[in-house]
Specification:
The complex is a heterodimer of chains A (201) and B (208). With 201 residues, chain A is mainly alpha-helical. Helices cover 71% and strands 0% of the residues of chain A. Chain A has helices at residues 3-17, 28-33, 38-67, 76-98, 100-106, 110-114, 117-128, 139-167, 179-194. Chain A starts with a helix and ends in a 7-residue tail after the last helix. Chain B has helices at 2-9, 24-29, 34-58, 67-89, 91-97, 108-118, 123-153, 185-207; strands at residues 155-156, 159-161, 164-166, 169-170. In chain B, the strands form two sheets. Chain B has a two-stranded antiparallel sheet with strand order 1-4. In chain B, strands 2-3 form a two-stranded antiparallel sheet. Chain B is globular, with a radius of gyration of 18 Å. At the A-B interface, α2, α4, α7 and α9 of A face α2, α4 and α8 of B.
């Protein structure tokens, strides 16, 4: 496959067909927790895109040059989570030093991302997933997959935040307020996204 | 007695899924069938109990600044143990839970209990907290899975339990046309949302 086709394939599957939140069930805690306002959802989404792209790249390097040559694949979980934690800490320090404005916008979300299962999920999937023709992901594919998965996450997070902002003025039973109605909404969105399932790439 | 109190609070009063709302990803993803739910719940319980004990043991010598990375390494170690043992002894279950076993590392319940409870309490109470929270998680997961499996397949508990194949209890009549949506992604969200609403309603009634 040429590069353009690959990008198209990754983008389409991460955004619609195999959306991280709605069909893979990854990253649900921030999806339900930080989707009350569009502005905070946007901040969280940007931070996730950034960290996922970096994690996709760095964890691929760790896997290909450290774990596979020494046959340490069984340490993947530990190695990846440490890489992500270190990366998040590093990103936080860099942003704090160089752009206080950006830090103010993203700062509170960064520590949360370490325990966002979507980030660990995407790097674990990068090691197991392969192209339809059976070839494994390359460095570029892993990075792109990280980026587009982050975009897919942000996409549904923003949609959800938009709906929830309007829900503020809706009249719903007391016991359904907050999380329960959020989950039902997510169910309706998942139903809509299920329509993309039939796509064969 | 304190031990019993810590043990019981995880079941209802501070139920990790319905009340604290943590660990949503495995709850929604692995509750398609009762046997998967029980497997996932027990795997998470094992990690939760072990990491709670370990963190309570080392809490005196853990520097405050780097406590989160230390917690994560402790948790990741136990998760790797579970992951490898499950792949060796229960390959079918390991295959159907897939990526969600290594993802126990980032299950917010476990890190949450480490931070909120085990790092501040003694070993015995942390053990009780781990068992209680773990069982609360397993039971809630099983409840969600029960509804989804009955609606989506018409049976309860069908599938492979360790190496033993069970047809399950047929709840719905033979002519029941399975509601496929219940075992797909949308069904997971809607079932959990409705259960949570019901739980809120019941909690209010007992308070008032």
């Amino acid at each position: 496959m040429n590069l353009f086709a690959k990008i198209f394939f990754l983008a389409l599957s991460a955004l619609f067909i195999q959306n991280f939140v709605l069909s893979r069930f990854l990253g649900l805690c921030p999806y339900l927790g930080v989707s009350k306002k569009i502005s905070s959802a946007f901040g969280m989404g940007m931070a996730v895109i950034f960290v996922m792209t970096m994690a996709g790249a760095f964890c691929f390097l760790v896997d290909a040059y450290l774990l596979v040559p020494y046959q340490l694949q069984y340490l993947r979980t530990i190695a990846f989570i440490l890489t992500i934690a270190a990366l998040v800490q590093f990103v936080e320090m860099v942003i704090l030093k160089n752009s206080p404005a950006l830090y103010k916008a993203l700062g509170v979300y960064l520590p949360l991302i370490t325990t966002n299962c979507a980030v660990l999920g995407v790097v674990l999937l990068n090691t197991t997933q392969s192209w339809p023709d059976g070839s494994a992901y390359s460095f570029l594919d892993a990075t792109l997959n990280g980026f587009f998965s982050g975009v897919g996450f942000t996409f549904v997070l923003l949609l959800m935040a938009g709906i929830r902002e309007r829900l503020e003025s809706a009249e719903i039973p007391d016991c359904m307020k907050g999380m329960p109605i959020g989950l039902i909404l997510a169910g309706c969105m998942a139903l809509a996204f299920w329509g993309f399932m039939g796509f064969k790439m | 007695m304190r031990f019993i109190q810590e043990l019981l609070k995880g079941l209802i009063k501070e139920n990790p899924i319905f009340v604290i709302v943590l660990g949503m990803c495995p709850t929604l993803a692995t509750s398609t069938a009762v046997n998967n739910a029980v497997g996932m719940g027990l795997a998470a319980t094992f990690v939760l109990v072990c990491s709670n004990i370990m963190i309570a043991v080392v809490k005196g010598i853990t520097p405050d600044k780097i406590r989160i990375p230390i917690f994560i390494v402790v948790i990741a170690t136990f998760v790797s143990i579970v992951d490898m043992s499950m792949a060796a002894f229960v390959p079918a279950l390991s295959k159907s839970l897939g990526i969600f076993i290594p993802l126990i590392v980032v299950n917010c319940i476990i890190l949450g209990r480490a931070e909120a409870f085990a790092s501040k309490n003694n070993v015995l109470n942390s053990l009780a907290d781990g068992i209680g929270m773990g069982l609360g998680f397993t039971i809630s997961l099983t409840v969600v899975a029960t509804i989804r499996e009955i609606l989506g397949a018409g049976t309860w508990g069908a599938g492979k339990w360790l190496s033993w194949e069970w047809d399950g209890i047929r709840v719905m009549p033979q002519s029941y046309d399975p509601m496929l949506i219940a075992i797909l992604a949308p069904g997971a969200f809607i079932t959990l949302g409705l259960l949570m609403g019901l739980m809120n309603k019941m909690m209010k009634r007992t308070e008032g």
